[in-house]
Each structure stands twice: as C-alpha cells, then as structure tokens.
Amino acid sequence: MQELHIEANGLRFRCLAAGPEGGPLALLLHGFPEGAESWSFQLEALAAHGLRAVAPDLRGYGGTACPPDEEAYRMSELVEDVAALIRNLGASTCHLAGHDWGSLVGWSVTSRHPELVGTWSALSVGHPAALSKAMREDEDQRRRSSYIGLFRERGKAEEVLQADGYRRLRDIYRTGPSPEAIPAGVVESYVRDFSRPGRLTAALNYYRVNLRREGPPMAEAGLTTPTQLLWGDQDPAVGRTSAELTATFVAGDYRLVVLEGAGHWLQFERPEEVSRLLVEWIRSHAQPVE
After folding, report:
1. Phi and psi torsions of 84, nearest 5°
2. 99 noted as active-site residue
3. Going from the N-terminus, what domains does the chain have, and what CATH number goes with each?
4. What is the DSSP string of 227-265?
5. Residue 41 has pLDDT above 90, yes or no
6. Is 100 a catalytic residue?
7. pLDDT, tens digit, for every residue of 77-136?
8. Catalytic-labelled residue, pool 57, 81, 100, 138
9. Taking the model in full, what pTM does it have?
C-alpha cells in the first residue's frame, strides 16, 4: 500500500492507495470519526482485482489540510474536493464508495457530477432525502440521530469528546454488536489525529454547517448511476426506515443489501463481505473506466 499526497480544490490531501496505477479508479470515502485507514482491507481487495483503489483523508482529517474556517466544510466544498481528486488522479470517471459522512458526500457527488461516477456504493447511510424523511417522521430514527444535537454544539461537543482522555470518542468506536471490530491500534491512531489542534473541531464542522434540524443536505432524487446500499440491520445510528426508503430516490439500477447482524462499522465488521460486494457491483455494471 502506498501513501500519496494529492493537490485538489486548493488543498493537499493525504491518500492511501493500492493497485496498478493504470487500473480503473475506485475512490473510497471514509466517515466520522475515522480516516483513510478504515478502507485498508478493501483497498487491498480491490487492488487484487486490478483496480487502482484510493482512499483519501477527507478535508480536516488525518494528514489532509485542515482549513480553520467553519464554512470551509460546506457540502459544496466537500463535493468539489472529490471531483478534483478524481480528475487529479488522472481519471475521467471512477467507481465511488462511501461510508457514513463519506456516504453523504458520495450521494451528493453522484448527484452533482454523474459524469464522474461509473458505479456508486453507499455504506450505512442511504439517500439524504430518505434519511431526512426518516428523521422527520420516524421516532426510531429521531432517537438514533439524537447525538447530532451534541455534535452541533460548538465547544460543548469538543469538551465532552475530549474529557477523561477522549473516553467518549473512544466509546464511539465500540458501539454496535461488534465492539472489538476496529483494532485497538487503529482506534489509537484516530484519537492521536483528533488530539491535534483543530482536528476534532474540523470533523464536527461537517455536522455544524451541513445538518439542519430536519436532516442532511439534499442530493437530487432520480439518480441513474448504478447504486447499491450496504446496511447493517444492527446499526445503532441508521435504522431500517431510511434504508428501505432509499429505493424511491434512485431511478437507475439499485439494490439494498442488508448485512444481518452487522452494525455501523461495516468495513471492519464484515471486511470480506464488503469487499466482495464492492467488486461484484463494479464488475456487473461498469464499462471500462479510465
């Protein structure tokens, strides 16, 4: 596996990469509170199938630049980061996958730049409109999303997550049915990253400038890009309602894959299964990409 540094949208992004440089590009977007390492297993698996697999640290995370301005984390900027990364990696289109916040960003990239996305795989988080509808109408989803209120509180969230040696931050990685799924070394690496000045606030800014009370920023309905949603039926943050509603917002080929017994950290909890499903979707839908 390689570590790359790519200039895109005015920022320097640290990326992990595997696979032949001339292979079709698979771009993998992480969620909160993680980093590129969350895709380590999938990077190697996709590379073994001839893909050039790349996972960036999103803006504000890990080894990527961390703008101090809260407004720098607007969805419009996050989308253009991804579009620029695709182009600056030398590709005209890619196979896109995202988890958690990476899913929210990926839905918007696929909506606003469909020409750049050959296939789209969302992990854990379905279409933003489906999630918004569930947050408005489904009491179960409102309960699952209640943590967002704290994350939007400037200063308070940082205080809570940093207290007692970042205990509450560490607890996030242990939620769900497989509390030991994320290796301890990876958790400590994440905590070290978030202990750097401004880094935890940068990650929380995603919530503060993008999430309204009624849900996430919208992506257009009627996507025609081949799309799959992988969702664990024991996910403590995202319930069944939004997962099942997502089909109504996708016009192209679509499937919902329910990973029974899995929680939120799908790449760690079900590494082989997630990798197989990604390869399967790419192979069955993609024309050759550059």
Report:
1. -70, -35
2. no
3. 2-285 (3.40.50.1820)
4. EEEEEETT-SSS-HHHHHHGGGGB-SSEEEEEETT--S-
5. yes
6. yes
7. 999 999 999 999 999 999 999 999 999 999 999 999 999 999 999 999 999 999 999 999
8. 100
9. 0.96
